[in-house]
Amino acid sequence: xxxxxxxxxxxxxxxxxxxxxxxxxxxxxxxxxxxxxxxxxxxxxxxxxxxxxxxxxxxxxxxxxxxxxxxxxxxxxxxxxxxxxxxxxxxxxxxxxxxxxxxxxxxxxxxxxxxxxxxxxxxxxxxxxxxxxxxxxxxxxxxxxxxxxxxxxxxxxxxxxxxxxxxxxxxxxxxxxxxxxxxxxxxxxxxxxxxxxxxxxxxxxxxxxxxxxxxxxxxxxxxxxxxxxxxxxxxxx
Length: 237
Known about the structure:
Blueprint: H1 4-14, H2 17-31, H3 38-45, H4 49-53, H5 59-76, H6 84-101, H7 103-111, H8 116-132, H9 136-162, H10 170-181, H11 190-194, H12 196-201, H13 204-231
Helix pairs in contact: 2-3, 2-5, 5-6, 5-7, 5-8, 6-7, 6-8, 6-9, 6-13, 7-9, 8-9, 9-13
């Protein structure tokens, strides 16, 4: 007769953390964070809750692991980048696409800016700004602007998720926002009226890339300034 202890141990070892995280991602993608319970996870994995607790301590740890798994893909694309600026674009667009595909990731990053995945992004982007030639004294400001830009995108996605906006709702939501904005007096808010059509019809990914390029161009300008200081002739004493 098999002992209960031996059977329980085999159930624990037959299940990997990778399988648990993958199943959690499936639930999060299909039904959202509220649907992710250890009971639902156990049903999906055809196991007991105890076997899952063997691999993850609680729901927060599970959400953290799922977020880190999804965002790790943003780092892999850096390998094929031809230069530091392209690597920075690859990191940022990787994060953007991950959040678009998995809106709950945006919620996690907005809720926990010090998330391990964000620490990895901070480290990798720092290395790329350094390789770009940004002066060490300006490195933090460049990386901070980059990270805050990504967190802003995450916060927007989290807000949309809280209001249960779907991609199919986008046109209606933007039209409603623009309609409310343009009720204001155009003599007091001329640029709100000027840009209303662009707000209504803009492409999110294109706008994200445009803002990202502003950060990179600014970093490149710092690099150019650093080089000019190195090559400029010494001033007469």
